[in-house]
Amino acid sequence: MNRPADLGDFAGGVLLVILCGLLWEVLARAGALDPQYFPPVTSIFSALWDMGLQGDLWTSLRASVYRMLCGFLIAVCISLPLGVFMGAVPFFRDLFGMVVEFLRPIPSVAIIPIIILLVGLGDSMNITSIAYASTWPLLINCIEGIASVEVLHVRSAQSFQLSPARIMLTVMLPSALPQILSGMRISLTMALALTVLSEMVVSTQGLGQVILDAQNRLDTPAMYAGILVVSVLGLLVNIGFNWVADLVFPWIERYRGVEV
Amino acid sequence: MSQVAIDSGSQGEAAVLEVEHLRKVYKQGKGETVAIGDISLNVKKDEFVSILGPSGCGKTTLLMCLAGLLGPSAGRVSIRGKTVTSPHPDVTLVFQDYSRSLYPWLSVSGNVLFGMRRRKYPKSEKLARARQALAMVNLQSFASHYPWQLSGGMQQRVAIARALAYDPEIILMDEPFASVDAQTRADLQDSFLEIWSRQKKTVVFITHDIEEAIYLSDRIYVISNRPCRVIECLDVGLERPRRQSVTRQDPLFADYWRHLFSIMQAEQAQGRRLEQAG
């Protein structure tokens, strides 16, 4: 809410990360950590530098980001309308609720074999499993958000003669938006996780493959470099999402700040 | 004292709002709850009528039926002779729970403008009406604030401004001043009475507060515990304009209070007996 304080927190966080890195470096150099498992941080960065120079890293990164975004967008296209619909109509909420509760706990990795059977190997397999996994958080949050809209908000709008469609657009969606956005945030994280995971299972490129390859070659610094890229990507995706959400819906953070 | 003639308001001018043998039953699985037993009442144009009853007696259900937001199980609600089946364009509501009826994502003026969405005024007139309504409740300088930045009393004034800008003929109010402190309540009562006397609106005001009912109303319907029915209809002859310091000292005020208090007390005692028996 308060920019200067945010900046201060951010600087503190960065400082802590740097300190941890330094500690790791010192312990590794001193021989307290086995370099086979925990190579010095500097060697991780130099491995990252080499990978960047070779160019493989960029093709992998591009492939991963592409899959992640495709999967996420498909998930949004499915779960946003479906979640709003289920949230608004109790009959369908109850009807499909069981199906959702049955499918949701299945770990997404467990259904990758089915997806391979259905769509074969290749990008479509990665994208399908990403879409599948990231559908649930958004779907659940959409249903919850729409179903828990204040009755009085709706009643007021009804008394002002608004049609059900108008009430959906001007009352129910804005009211559910904070929850829908936090569902999307979780879905994005899910999408990134499934990107790496599905690439480890089957793929010729992508960050998951980069990490797995390095591990097979016992090139631990390169493996850590891959992991570092994934974590930075996740961080950037989260920051970018919050930035866009803040830009489009500036009122949300503020009204969520105070308990309404 | 239980059955008093309940048609004392129907003499003279025709009623704007009429309720005839209204009954509302909620079905819960196999059982059912009778929220409203049998209610008949009527409200004349520009009249300020209170419905006074113990907490949890189904007053809110009654108001929802009056607004056309709930359909009756039997009987009928009519406005100027026409049966109400859906939310009526000439009626709006002010709820007790302002924090749940104002939209937190809209500014104060956004909330007031929201009420006029289906009104066919040009945009400039809507803005002028919103400004005017906010001025009436003394909130003109808070137009760009958000509701949650205001105190409870101010939020309820926003809700009142929203109802006024919508410019309905009938305003239904569900314990609108019950969630604020005593001083704010007195202020809200006075400012609303002042607006009402200038704007000429028909008001149906639900409350469980005897003094509030006497202070505000032209007429008071007292209703019983669930399943609620009308047990008394009292015309309030206190002169207007009313003032907190003067009106409440009027001997007539005390008489009304004693009369209503004894009715409510008897009703509550009976409610307790029924609870123990059941």
What key phrases describe this protein's structure?
heterodimer, A: 260 residues, mainly alpha, MetI-like fold, 2 domains, globular, B: 278 residues, alpha/beta, 10-stranded mixed beta sheet, 25% strand, disordered N terminus
Written description of the protein model:
The complex is a heterodimer of chains A (260) and B (278). Chain A is mainly α and 260 residues long. Chain A has two domains: 1-38; 54-257, MetI-like fold (Orthogonal Bundle), CATH 1.10.3720.10. Chain A is 82% helix and 0% strand. Chain A has eleven helices and no strands. In chain A, α3 packs across α9. Chain B has 278 residues and is α/β, with parallel strands linked by helices. Chain B contains nine helices and ten strands. Chain B has helices at residues 59-67, 98-101, 108-114, 123-136, 152-166, 182-199, 210-216, 244-247, 251-277; strands at residues 15-28, 31-44, 48-52, 74-79, 82-83, 91-94, 170-174, 202-207, 219-223, 228-235. The two termini of chain B are 24 Å apart. Chain A binds chain B through residues 150-153, 155-162, 166, 170-171, 174-175, 177, 251-252, 254-255, 258, 260, and chain B through 64, 67, 69, 87, 89, 91-93, 95, 97, 99-101, 103-105, 114-118, 146, 148-149, 166.
User: N-to-C terminal Cα separation of chain A, in Å?
Assistant: 16 Å
Greatest contact pair? A-B, 24 and 25 residues
Q: Domain count of chain A, please report it.
A: 2
Main structural class of chain A = mainly alpha
Amount of helix of chain A: over 70%
Largest sheet of chain A: none
Query: How many distinct helices of chain A?
Result: 11
How is the quaternary structure best described? heterodimer
CATH architecture of the largest domain in chain A: Orthogonal Bundle
By CATH, the superfamily of the largest domain in chain A comes out as: MetI-like
Using only C-alpha atoms, the radius of gyration of chain A works out to: 22 Å
Structural class of chain B: alpha/beta
The proportion of residues forming helix of chain B, as a percent range, comes to 25-40%
Q: Choose one word for the global shape of chain A.
A: globular
Q: pLDDT average of chain B, as an integer?
A: 89
Order of neighbouring strands in the sheet with most strands of chain B? 5-4-1-2-10-9-3-8-7-6
Count all strands of chain B and give the number: 10
Rg for CA atoms of chain B: 19 Å
Total of helices of chain B:
9
Write down the CATH class of the largest domain in chain A. Mainly Alpha
